[in-house]
Amino acid sequence: MRFYVPTDIYVEKNCVKNHAQNLLAMGKRAFIMTGRSSAKKNGSLDDVIAVLDAGHVPYQVFDQVEENPSTDTVGNAAQQAREFKADYIIGIGGGSAIDAAKAAALLLANPNLIADNLHKAPEKPLEHIPVVAVPTTCGTGSEATPVAIITSHKIHLKKSIPHRIFPALALVDGKYLASAKKTLIINTAVDALAHMVESILNVYSNAFNRMCPEYGLKLWGELKDALLSDAPVDESLYEKLMLTSTIAGMSIAHTSTSVPHGMSYDLTLHQGVPHGPAVGYFLAAYVEVCKKKVPEDVKRILELLRLKSTADFTEMLEKLIGKCRVSREIRDQFAAAMKVNHSKLDLVPGGITPEEVDFIYDKSLVVE
Ligand code: NAP
Ligand code: ZN
Question: Looking at the structure, do residues 207 and 149 belong to the same domain, yes or no?
Answer without folding.
Answer: no
